């Protein structure tokens, strides 16, 4: 199972992802799926600076990621599938529910219209509905900021 984590974190690549999750999971690559970052050389360079040299990082759009999901999952290298928003992860789940089946909500922060569900998780009612639809579609949705924290199932914060 080389894709070892499917994570939604609006900060994208930062220490909690690279060190907190990447090291304990033995991650060898991060596939960052984001429409804006995939076409922004300067943003890619910033994110590259946040990862150690032994950790490969790939910047792709949803359209580029979808045909690669099966290959990433079947490969020998362990990876993290990372998105900055729920809609992007939902699109990846719809494209490959066998690969994107356990979704980690790791950091979705405050903005207008969102309510605190957990200290690191702020969601609108619409986002909650989207997460419920993901679960109805076969995904397991859990909130967990660090691997040492207890996973919180969706039903606990709906």
- Molecular shape: globular
Structural class: alpha/beta
CATH C-level class: Alpha Beta
Task: Report how far apart the termini are.
Answer: 29 Å
- β-strand percent reads 25-35%
Q: How many domains make up the coordinates?
A: 1
- The sequence of SSEs as H and E is EHEHEHHEHEEEHEE
Oligomeric state of shown chains: single chain
What's the overall average pLDDT, rounded? 95
Please tally the helical runs, counting DSSP H or I stretches of 4 or more residues: 6
Low-confidence stretches: none
Describe this structure in words.
The protein is of the alpha/beta class and 158 residues long. It has a single domain, classed as Phosphotransferase system, sorbose subfamily IIB component (Fructose Permease, 3-Layer(aba) Sandwich), CATH 3.40.35.10. It is built from six helices and nine strands, in the order E-H-E-H-E-H-H-E-H-E-E-E-H-E-E. The chain has a seven-stranded mixed β-sheet with strand order 3-2-4-1-5-8-9, sandwiched between helices. The protein is globular, with a radius of gyration of 15 Å.
What is the structure about, briefly put?
With 158 residues, the chain is of the alpha/beta class. The chain has helices spanning 15-25, 41-49, 62-65, 69-74, 86-95, 125-136; strands at 3-9, 29-33, 56-60, 79-83, 102-107, 115-118, 121-123, 140-143, 152-153.
Keywords:
single chain, 158 residues, alpha/beta, Fructose Permease, seven-stranded mixed sheet, two-stranded antiparallel ribbon, globular
Write the layout of secondary structure elements.
Elements: E1 3-9, H1 15-25, E2 29-33, H2 41-49, E3 56-60, H3 62-65, H4 69-74, E4 79-83, H5 86-95, E5 102-107, E6 115-118, E7 121-123, H6 125-136, E8 140-143, E9 152-153
Parallel strand pairs: 1-4, 1-5, 2-3, 2-4, 5-8
Antiparallel strand pairs: 6-7, 8-9
Helix pairs in contact: 5-6
């Amino acid at each position: 199972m080389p894709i070892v984590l499917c994570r939604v974190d609006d900060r994208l690549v930062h220490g909690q992802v690279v060190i907190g999750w990447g090291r304990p999971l033995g991650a060898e690559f991060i596939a960052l799926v984001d429409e804006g970052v995939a076409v922004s050389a300067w943003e890619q360079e910033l994110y590259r600076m946040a990862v150690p040299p032994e950790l490969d990082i790939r910047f792709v759009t949803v359209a580029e990621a979808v045909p690669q999901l099966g290959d990433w999952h079947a490969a020998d290298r362990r990876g993290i599938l990372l998105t900055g928003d729920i809609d992007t992860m939902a699109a990846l789940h719809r494209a490959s529910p066998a690969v994107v089946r356990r979704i980690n909500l790791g950091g979705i922060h405050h903005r207008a219209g969102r309510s605190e569900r957990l200290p690191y998780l702020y969601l609108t009612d619409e986002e909650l509905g989207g997460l419920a639809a993901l679960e109805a579609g076969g995904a397991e949705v859990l909130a967990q900021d660090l691997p040492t924290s207890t996973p919180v199932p969706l039903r606990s914060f709906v």
